[in-house]
């Protein structure tokens, strides 16, 4: 799933590519992806692209006062095409193509989603705050006003909620998903199950630095990369996420996993939990 660093890099890459171009045509291939009807999708046709920005994990293409906001969900992506096909795509539930944006020089974007679970969402709005998911976003962890004091307030408000969940919940902190929450907690040497309101002052400072450094470093590595390079860059720099069974790059212990209904987390027992494996409730049920 694209998270803050990848969406930030996408915004930078697309902003440069779309600068000075007009949107000539938009084709919808997956009707379920479009979540708004006023303004209509066709209202974007003939508009000039003013810029591309990010709100949490949402991508925002602004054109002549309108906004095409995209949430790429778990398996969505944006693919640049130097030349798009002249024949419009046919709507299909089997195609990976959700939306195609054709520019005035016949280049454009394909917004795609792999897999059978279709969650990608596109919104055409006059104000990004008209998108419910954007309106509910918490503070951006790389913004100047995301201070350690504000972070402390957020964690106290989360109470006994596990740190993993607090970091991932978009209304609490915007932009951190499953992968970078694992990476942040590994960098901070903290258990994903640690209660949010249980941190000492030193632990709070360590976790705050891990949030800023992990995300900031990922953004710096991704800056300037083309969209096609971002997924590979992310995977090649993950210490524990998606690394189950491999050695921890810090201590050499085996990275372990806890599975849930529709996701999983990875961690290093030596670095994060005092050498003790965390309970995997799903596996426990299977063994009964």
Task: Provide an overview of this structure.
- The chain has about 290 residues and is of the alpha+beta class.
- The chain has two domains: about 5-135, MutM-like, N-terminal (N-terminal domain of MutM-like DNA repair proteins), CATH 3.20.190.10; about 150-285, Helicase, Ruva Protein, domain 3 (Orthogonal Bundle), CATH 1.10.8.50.
- The chain has nine helices and ten strands.
- The protein has helices at about 5-20, 130-135, 150-160, 165-170, 180-190, 200-220, 225-235, 270, 280-285, and strands at about 25-30, 50-55, 60-65, 65-70, 75-80, 95-105, 110-115, 120-125, 255-260, 265.
- The strands form three sheets. It has a four-stranded antiparallel sheet with strand order 1-6-7-5, with helices on one face.
- Helix 1 (about 5-20) runs parallel beside helix 6, helix 1 (about 5-20) runs antiparallel to helix 7 and helix 5 (about 180-190) packs across helix 6 (about 200-220).
- The radius of gyration is 20 Å and the shape is elongated.
- Its cofactor is Zn(2+).
- It comes from Nocardioides conyzicola.
- This is Fpg/Nei family DNA glycosylase.
- It catalyses: Hydrolysis of DNA containing ring-opened 7-methylguanine residues, releasing 2,6-diamino-4-hydroxy-5-(N-methyl)formamidopyrimidine.
Search tags:
288 residues; Helicase, Ruva Protein, domain 3; multifunctional enzyme; zinc; four-stranded antiparallel beta sheet; N-terminal domain of MutM-like DNA repair proteins; 10 strands; single chain; 31% helix; FPG_N; 2 domains; metal-binding; alpha+beta
